[in-house]
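Slide 14.
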Amino acid sequence: MEPKIVSSRLSVSGQIAPSDVAALAAAGYRAILCNRPDGEGADQATFEEIAAEAEKAGLEARYLPVVSGKVTDEDAAAFGRALDELPGPVFAYCRSGTRSVTLWSLSQAERLDLTEILQCAKAAGYDMSGVVRRIANGGRTPVDRADASYDVVIVGGGAAGVSVASSLLQRKRDLNVAVIDPADIHYYQPGWTLVGGGVFTSGETVRTMASVIPKGVHWLKAAVAAFEPEEDAVILDGCRVVKYQRLVVCPGLKLDWDRIDGLVETLGKNGVTSNYRFDLAPYTWDLVQQLRSGNALFSQPPMPIKCAGAPQKALYLSADHWRRSGRLKDIDIGFYNAGPVLFGVKEYVPSLMDYVERYGAELNFKHNLTAVDGPAKKAWFTKTDEEGRTETVERDFDLLHVCPPQTAPDFIRVGPLADAAGWVDVDQSTLRHKSFEKVYSLGDVMNAPNAKTAAAARKQAPIVAQNLLYDMGHARFQAHYDGYGSCPLTVERGKIVLAEFGYGGKLLPSFPSWIIDSRKPSRLAWWLKERILPPVYWQGMLKGREWMVKPERLPEVSVQ
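Slide 15: predicted structure.
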């Protein structure tokens, strides 16, 4: 810990330990200001621990946590007030000191000259060029003027974002549309299960982002820092401001690998893998082929997750390979599900249980994976009983397939569009935001109680396009979303249980039962998954060709 002097009143550094507090007191500091949220790093001392040592040393301590990369105008104002109220000199810290210096720079924007602020920050070793515009605007995000403006701004260039852009242009060609996404690559994520099962190659599931963005759509290759829905504005990293007439939010969700202790360090080695990552799905297939005997564990975290059937799909395809190669009798398979049931729609459970029994898999419900030691080949699960009591269960493994915990992205969770759980808050029928009329959302990030699958996004995209244009006066009716989602459960190579359902688990099959009985394994459903759905995705869904997903009119509500 080495304090870096920013001004006569403030010094900063990266994370400190409780043992550093006495030295700060000895150096003459009279207050400590923490700008790092507890739990951000595994080796991080909590604010409570720091505050306890500060009290012993006679220092005042204050907690003002700020999410990395998301310094709001309100955060800066609160920092300025704290700096005025605390006895000085003040020592502030975060992970590296950057957040603390950014907060100081913004808070001093109306007190000090811009050049002086930048020079002080640079002398302390921090570059504030990324927030120069905010400093020059009095420390506030300058949403009164825009760097760019569009009819429709779409946040996210995944399956949902590209599809809704195409569906919009299919309806109104002269619409001025922008897609915001920093990624260079677009993935066909439903294919990763088949990569992990040796059916697809990883190259079949990837295209460049530039090749899938619809012609005529502006691609803003940037990350979103914040939303200002009251100002009809999106703030990008670097404080660029993009204005809109309508906003569509669909950045997907965040795979929170760090929530499982020890997992990040061992992913892709020591027999630990996941089909939820493009680069790891081929490793899954390598492990399945190499395993001759031992323990194979498959985990599923608490809901919600994308494609809730994917964790058990990995189990079924792996077990089928071991069965066909004569090794199944030598491999003990365990499925560890944090939830209470095998699948959330009861009509599909009997067929799935037939395969669980065929493969001799042990089902363990209410078991949540919490830690992994790759080199030692051990995994730990928190088991919860019917009374809510918990215990830790340790298991050895030779292969461990992990489905990570999942949340909304950080910039969504901390922003004004989120509900209490962090998901974008929409009306589940129209997919319009409940509080901001110009905002719509679809895909994995919104809070409608449907399955988070690509098939759901395929149905949602034309509905959002229709409703948004109706709202703008360019369409004749509003459309209704019934919660449709599909999960093609690959129970063996060559057979699939084609689960299709909507809100409340209502079955919504696309085909008559004499063609495909969605409750039973089917070779035709496998052919659909392997041969038909990939071109439907690339050439249909992403191009705005709404095969079998034309939006239905929102039912009229009669007034008594």
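Speaker note: The first helix runs from residue 21 to 26.
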